């Protein structure tokens, strides 16, 4: 089920009969929306080059879930676009290939700008691919705002993103409340 609007409950007055329209507005639509909120899980399955010392939006070429069609596999593949105004719980992972030099980072951006308190850094370890998780945050998005997971590395040259069954760049978005 996709594209449900946030239900608006009907106004009631004493003496109203429970009609099919009132039942639909007050019970069915609310229950259906609560059981099927906007949800997105996207991952990266094709390596992407991450330039040195540059935050880079990570492309998401696979969707495990996109209940409201907020993500495109054709254009702006790094973005999840909010279908409804409200609070969303957002987290991500930046998978970055091994290199013993420098640090690696992951953060969440909204409309191309970083969300304060939504970044994580780790120092590189020799011979280890890293999956760097972002903090999980509730973020208010208006309809049409977009959210991205970004990766960062400062190894001294470009590095690829890591693509493994257990380490891959990913974005997780779920509508929380209005």
Q: Brief overview, please?
A:
With 178 residues, the protein is mainly beta.
Notes on the protein architecture:
The protein has 178 residues and is mainly β. The protein folds into two domains: 1-36, no CATH class; 38-177, Jelly Rolls (Sandwich). Helices cover 9% and strands 41% of the residues. The protein has one helix and 13 strands; from the N terminus they run αβββββββββββββ. It has one helix at residues 20-35; strands spanning 39-43, 49-50, 56-57, 62-66, 80-81, 86-96, 103-110, 113-123, 130-133, 137-141, 146-153, 159-160, 170-177. The strands form three sheets. Strands 1, 4, 6, 9, 10 and 13 form a six-stranded antiparallel β-sheet that branches. The radius of gyration is 20 Å and the shape is elongated. 29% of the residues are buried. The model has no long low-confidence stretch (mean pLDDT 91). This is C1q domain-containing protein. InterPro entries: Tumour_necrosis_fac-like_dom (IPR008983).
**Number of structural domains:** 2
Unreliable sequence segments: none
- Backbone CA Rg: 20 Å
Secondary structure category: mainly beta
What's the level 1 CATH class of the largest domain? Mainly Beta
What level of helicity do the residues show?
Answer: under 10%
**Approximate strand percentage:** 35-45%
- Number of distinct helices: 1
Tell me which CATH architecture of the largest domain applies here. Sandwich
Give the rounded overall mean pLDDT. Answer: 91
Give me the strand/helix succession: HEEEEEEEEEEEEE
CATH topology of the largest domain: Jelly Rolls
InterPro entries: Tumour_necrosis_fac-like_dom
Organism: Kitasatospora cathayae
Protein name: C1q domain-containing protein
């Amino acid at each position: 089920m996709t594209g449900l609007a946030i239900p608006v409950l009907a106004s009631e007055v004493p003496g109203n009969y429970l009609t099919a329209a009132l039942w639909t507005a007050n019970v069915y639509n609310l229950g259906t929306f609560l059981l099927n909120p906007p949800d997105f899980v996207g991952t990266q399955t094709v390596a992407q080059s991450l330039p040195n010392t540059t935050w880079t939006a990570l492309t998401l070429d696979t969707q495990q879930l996109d209940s409201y069609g907020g993500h495109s596999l054709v254009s702006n593949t790094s973005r999840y676009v909010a279908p409804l105004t409200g609070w969303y719980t957002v987290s991500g992972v930046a998978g970055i290939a091994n290199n013993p030099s420098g640090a690696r980072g992951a953060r969440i951006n909204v409309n191309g700008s970083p969300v304060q308190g939504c970044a994580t850094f780790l120092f590189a370890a020799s011979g280890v691919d890293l999956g760097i998780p972002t903090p999980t945050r509730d973020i208010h998005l208006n309809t049409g705002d977009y959210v991205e997971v970004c990766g960062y590395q400062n190894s001294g040259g470009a590095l690829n993103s890591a693509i493994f069954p257990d380490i891959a760049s990913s974005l997780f978005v779920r509508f929380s409340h209005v």
